[in-house]
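DOMAIN: structural biology
WANTED: fold as tokens
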Amino acid sequence: MKIGSRIICKDNKSRVSRRIKLKTMNDKIEKLLKFIEESNNIVFFGGAGVSTESGIPDFRSKDGLYNQHDVQFEKYEPEYLLSENCLFKNPKVFYEFYRQKMDTRNIESNITHKVLAKLEETGKLKAIVTQNIDGLHQKAGSKNVYEIHGTTQRNYCHKCKKEYDPNFLFETKESIPKCDCRGLIRPDVVLYGEGLPEKAVEGAINAIRNADMLIIGGTSLQVYPAANFVYDFCGEHLVVVNKEELKITLNQDSDLFICESLGKVFSEIEKCI
């Protein structure tokens, strides 16, 4: 393209565009770091996008768990396979699906999990509220984690409440695992049709209400009632890190939206803590 005596080719234009984008991203990272420095009670609210960078698929994206077409499960609705109804009325199918799809024991925490654990060590981060059930925050070293959808790292007898080793459901040779009392041994996760754990919910809401900074990451805020928790925040800085924009109102001066992967953003944070 010719402008006056200067010629700007497409490659030059793309390089200029990348430099502008990089500058904008650096400005946002600087603003995020400033917010962290100003804050003393940070809470992180995370969804499936936190763990996808560890190789765990989310549920609803094109490559997500619900779009993996396995012949043996095709006749069932995806939500049914992880439902209370399936567990108790069709337990053999439930456990087949659970063992194939929910085993994260060999998955490692990623940079986001690790940097959040470091932020907790500094005293800045007070709590993590997670919709994930993989236990990767604790694996990275985080202590104060509210698992509002439960965790695959705990199993218990539905009847007598006896607790079982995290490996039990994946290693037992019983197709339908039973306790000594003959009760069904189940994972401590919230299935479709079940309510959220009261203790975790209460802790999560209180943490968000008391926070002076809330970071929302890797979530579409479309899973309810958990998505409603963020509206209890009334602190100083609200930060959203997500690859897609969310329907949430932000203040231009005190809040921040970063349209980027969590891994890239938290890698930058790691350099400064």
Summary: Confidence is low (pLDDT under 50) at residues 1-10, 12-22.
